Amino acid sequence: MDEDLTEYAPDIPDNVLELIFSYLKLQDLRNCSLVCKSWNRFLNDENNEVWRAQCMQKLSPDAFKTDLLSVVPTYKAKLRAFFHAWNPYDCSRHVYIKPNGFTLHRNPVAQSTDGSRGKIGFQHGRHAWEVRWEGPLGTVAVVGIATKDAAIQCHGYYALLGADDQSWGWNLVDNLLLHNGDAHGIYPLLNNAPKYKVGERIRVILDCDDNTLSFEKNYEFLGVAFTDLPDKVFYPTVAAVYGNTEISMVYLGPPLDG
């Protein structure tokens, strides 16, 4: 991209740029980053005051009261994660998104399986996000991906994520991979693989270039879970059954190999 930019715009000190850019909207900032190399350099500093101001405007103070966003260390990364977080308009009626914007709460409703999708779906590139389950898992606790055509709520306690051909999931309760209503083997492929413990960090890795879905647990890569994913738009998705359980999701961006 730098090859298409002029070397410099008028010589404006960084502190003046900071003041000017602090009044702009996100789309305007993106356009400014394409003006010249010096502006692009300035806006590529993800921890400068411009991104801090944007972050403080968009994110609730509740988002900073825990270590939830510690996995995205820069202000711009936190802002990006907010725009990818759970969608309050694309979740079960028994679920609400807490004021921090990143955590869903499932109400204690009997005989219901309830889920939520992220705000932004992916069809190209490589993407990673972290999921943290707080509270008992119950009999069903599935993390994975789904298209917009997958159901987000159903009657009974059911492995909803993975119940049809529009969703793929890992049930943390029994270590089974689920898709199209079928179990696709134990995951991870270890003898007596340990079960998920509440509070452990699950990292979901979607590779739309290689059409694979993989998982990490506590930063340990567990292997590829699903291959040959179709050419569809996929959303981060979870499904839960236990009352008052809470699930947080933080988008990380492209995965860091190795």
From TrEMBL:
Keywords: Neurogenesis, Synapse, Ubl conjugation pathway
Record carries keyword Secreted: no
Keyword Protease: no
Localisation: Synapse
Cellular component terms per the entry's GO annotation: SCF ubiquitin ligase complex; synapse
SUPFAM superfamilies the UniProt entry points to: Concanavalin A-like lectins/glucanases, F-box domain
Highest taxon in the source lineage: Eukaryota
Pfam families: F-box-like, SPRY
Pathways per UniProt: Protein modification; protein ubiquitination
Record-linked InterPro entries: B30.2/SPRY, B30.2/SPRY_sf, ConA-like_dom_sf, F-box-like_dom_sf, F-box_dom, FBXO45-Fsn/SPSB_families, SPRY_dom, SPRY_FBXO45
Gene Ontology process terms (BP): negative regulation of nervous system development; proteasome-mediated ubiquitin-dependent protein catabolic process; protein ubiquitination; synapse assembly involved in innervation
Biological role stated in the UniProt entry: Required in the presynaptic motoneuron to down-regulate the levels of wnd and restrain synaptic terminal growth at the neuromuscular junction (NMJ).
Quaternary assembly: Component of an E3 ubiquitin ligase complex composed of hiw and Fsn.
PANTHER family assigned: F-BOX_SPRY DOMAIN-CONTAINING PROTEIN 1, SPRY DOMAIN CONTAINING SOCS BOX PROTEIN
Membership in a protein family: Belongs to the FBXO45/Fsn family.
Protein name: F-box/SPRY domain-containing protein 1
Gene that encodes it: 5571026
